[in-house]
Design brief:
With 650 residues, the protein is mainly β. It contains one helix and 67 strands. The chain has a domain of 102 residues.
Length: 650
Amino acid sequence: MATYTGTNGVNSIQIRTAGAHLAYGLGGNDSIIVQVSALATGDAGDTLYGGQGNDVITAAGTNDVLYGDDGDNGASGGNDVLNGGSGNDTIHGEAGADDLLGGLGDDVLHGGAGNDLLSGSNGDDQLHGGDGDDTIVTGTGDHVVTGGAGDDEIIASGGVDVLNGDAGNDKIIAGDGADDVRGGDGADDIDGGGGDDRLFGDAGDDLFRHGLGADQIDGGAGADTVTYAAAASGVGVDLATGGTTGASGGDTLTAVESVIGTGFADVLIGDGAANTFEGGDGADGLDGRDGADRLFGGLGLDTLLGGGGDDSLEGGDGDDQLDGGAGADTLEGGLGIDALFGRAGADRISGGDGDDQMDGGEDNDLLSGGLGLDIILGGDGLDTLDGGAGDDQLDGDAGDDVFIGRENDGADLFVGDLGFDLVNYEASAAGVYVQLTSAGTTTAPATNALNGTPNAAAGDRFASTIEGVVGGAGNDLLVGFDGSQTFVTGGGNNQLQGGNDADTLIGTAGTNSLVGQAGGDTLIGMGGTNTMSGDSTGNPIATDSYVCLGGLSYISNAQFATSGGNPIWADALYVRAGTAFSLVTSASFTGTSEWYLRGLNSQAESWVRLGVLNDTTVTTDNTTANSLASLVLARTLVANPANYDDYLLG
């Protein structure tokens, strides 16, 4: 065996003699080239050591052993180029970013530490990347590949290969043979290629890309996905059975949670786990079944069924049908004429652009129409309905529902049906003028009769089943009818007028006029300046059930009258008292009914100070209140065992 030894400098060793050779490059960036063909050397094999430095070693014998060795100081690897040539070679890159070329023959390549490139060429090779982010490319033949630690890329050609990514987020592309592929730990990207392959994701959230052939795919631990996006026609997938049809080629799926469909018509069916389906283009049918599923229809006329669980359904572009099934679901129709059904559960439903139809079903739902002429049915429960832009039809159905009204978003129709139903314009900058009706529907005019300004509710129609309205930020004029209504002011200077039954009028911010009209009304001041009267002529409040005054510093010249009778809770004046007191400077009561003054939401240490009109004996209930001053009424006050903080009975 001929031996060649370089120096610690830059060496160029060229071997032209036949036989076996032993070469040492030692230190420096060396070039070792065996220039004798395999025919001349026979079976003799060369052993070539690059030594420290960035070396280039090219062998020409049949069975060679090549070592790149370490670079610089032996701690960090040199960046070596090692070419085995023909024959059955063993090549060690050691540390550093090495290029290892096996050449012809059955080679064994070890990349070692560093980000290496390993190329097997022809032959049945064993390629081991070692530590680092390696790129490993096989040639023809049957190969065994291990990526080692790091994020590796493994690309196989023909043959029956065993490909193992090991730890790291690896990308593996199998060849045309019947391959065994393991991703190892990490989020791996695995392409089966041609042939009937066995693909294992192992631990991590893995992505499997369908190739040609009937593959056995096992996702292993983690949330794993199979994509058929590149298929030439539609597929059918049932995760409950693991079976597939169509362009899938007869794949078998195990421990797979998510599927991406093709650009054609797909049918994707889930199991009891939390599945994610993407239909892609085409008229797809997606059925999540049990579990908290995420379904995306994509482009096309799609049908999405959530099944059991709290699901998220998104139709995408096209005229889609979405059915949430049981659970608290989120449904988004997207672009197109969509039909959305919440079913059981507290659902959030959005139609998106297009003329959509939606039904909340059972429980307390939130329904939003978006742009278009939408038809929205709340269903059972306490629902919130928002038509969005366009002339929409909103029907609360059973339950106490809230309709969202806005200015300049179309002429909507509000239908309450069963329950107490209210239209809320609090998001509108302008004032609201609405006069409800006891039969049929009424349309809000374009102009506010209170001050001639544009009406935030202009064009909106109110069925007789609407019982309440909340005004906007401007000046509101809300007028009742023969039934019982609830009106709430927004900002501005507002006027609330009850009808001929028991109404509730609530003044909040601004300067408000609350007129009860006929019936036993409840008038509540919760802020601002509130003027309360029994009818439109300014008469004292008569036959009204409750008057609630909150946030006041005093009450002046209040007159209350009853028309007879002796109901237990008739004609009550509530004084809302917190830790501060409210001062009643003057109050007169007439009639035969009982009267109550009490603190509303007051604390035990709160108290109400009442001015004296004339001499009358006052008996107070001090069960919970600390103190209560005297009030002179036409009749003697008596004690009552009711458990109120501040209380007088006259």
